[in-house]
Design a protein that fits this description.
Strand order of the largest sheet: 7-6-5-8-9-10-14
Structural class: alpha/beta
Distance between the termini: 59 Å
Radius of gyration: 25 Å
Largest sheet: 7 strands, parallel
CATH topology of the largest domain: Rossmann fold
Helix content: 40-55%
Length: about 375
């Protein structure tokens, strides 16, 4: 029925996704005001479990339909359990027989934020693996330096100056790269900025820059380069998230919000591609590092370095490229944080807070000058 959202149940898969026809207007095309005064379709939301009007009073038919639904549900459950066991067996097998790394030689890889830090190291690592590296950064001088470093190690590289906050500049970038270099098959969304300070000390401009660079820049880049990947049915999209995108971090409220959004963007895109293009060969990977020594963070305090510690930009870039070539979907740096985070999230929220207090790990806070004077005078206690 037009305008109806159904819970589609198929053999071996159950999806809570609206049918395509749920996106279409009603045949009648009319919109009825609700009691609250808002406009809404005249067809109300219905469930498949509600009996059809023609079935009322027909007990044998209702019994047959109920039995059929139970049989389909049971069969779906059996298929689900079988497929889940197969996936678990594959995971166990990978522990003994690691997945080989696919060659990326000759593929065009674009890296945002390539002018410094992890972006530069990722560009260098891609160049060592034989990829054609397209360096993108808002700073032309440092971006050109990254291109020269890739070329010095006998790699092929190009440099483009672009502000990822600008959708127009990204559209121009996509056209220029396609004309000069070729079709991009690897997109590394790395560009990002961070201001580590109390939320109320963030300026309006700082908050807007964080959201525009960390989130909107990634969205615009994916919108620009994904269509051609879909046409070729080939490509990898790697988005740099953060552990702050899985657990809220104090003094990084806008940054944490942007990284939570990046995580949601990648999860939603993955589910959309599964639903709209089953069996597609587009690889998506979300990377969530703890603390990478790139210069963005001035200092950190870590109580248990053997559990969670900083990693160098070079080490992080090698892990990112390696896992991308293996087809991983999720990468935490360090990897143990994936299991630690998922376990802690099962506990009551008060216990999660206590665990955070016990681990006592974080980054240095960048206060305003007037607040630093108050700290020095003892007027404010610095909780670190």
């Amino acid at each position: 029925m037009d305008g109806e959202v159904r819970f589609a149940t198929t053999l071996g898969s159950t999806s809570l996704m609206p049918r395509r026809d749920s996106m279409m207007p009603s045949r009648r095309g009319s919109m009825m005001p609700s009691r609250r005064g808002s406009m809404m379709p005249d067809d109300t939301l219905k469930s498949k479990e509600i009996a059809n009007e023609n079935m009322k009073g027909n007990l044998p038919l209702q019994t047959a339909v109920s039995a059929y639904r139970c049989a389909v549900l049971l069969l779906d459950l059996i298929v689900f359990m079988f497929r889940a066991v197969i996936h678990f067996l594959r995971i166990i097998a990978k522990m003994f027989f690691p997945v080989s790394e696919k060659s990326i030689a000759g593929q065009v890889a674009i890296v945002t934020g390539a002018g410094q830090g992890m972006g530069r190291e990722i560009a260098l690592e891609l160049g060592r693996c034989g990829a054609v590296v397209v360096c993108v950064d808002i700073r032309e001088d440092t971006n050109q330096e990254t291109m020269r470093l890739v070329q010095q190690q006998r790699g092929l590289a190009f440099a483009y100056t672009c502000d990822v906050c600008s959708r127009e500049e990204i559209e121009d970038l996509q056209k220029a790269v396609k004309a000069d270099v070729g079709d991009v098959t690897i997109l590394i969304n790395n560009a990002g900025i961070l201001h580590c300070r109390p939320f109320l000390q963030h300026t309006d401009t700082q908050i807007e820059d964080i959201i525009q660079t960390n989130l909107m820049g990634q969205l615009w880049m994916v919108r620009a380069f994904l269509p051609r990947m879909l046409e070729m049915d080939k490509g990898s999209v790697v988005s740099l998230c953060s552990i702050a995108g899985h657990a809220g971090a104090p003094h990084m409220v806008p940054y944490s919000a942007s990284k939570f959004a990046v995580k949601g963007m990648m999860e939603a895109l993955h589910q959309e591609l599964r639903a709209e293009r089953p069996g597609n060969d587009i690889h998506l990977m979300t990377v969530s590092p703890f603390i990478v020594d790139t210069g963005m963070i001035k200092g950190a305090y870590i109580r248990f370095p053997s559990l969670l510690n900083k990693v160098s930009a070079n080490e992080a870039s090698q892990l990112i490229v390696k896992n991308m070539r293996k087809g991983a979907n999720i990468l935490f740096i360090p990897g143990r944080y994936y299991y630690l985070h998922n376990f802690v999230r099962l506990l009551p929220i008060e216990v999660q807070w206590l665990i955070g207090d016990f681990i006592d790990t974080g980054v240095d806070v960048h206060y305003d000058e007037n607040m630093e004077e108050d700290l020095d005078n003892g007027n404010i206690e610095q909780d670190l």
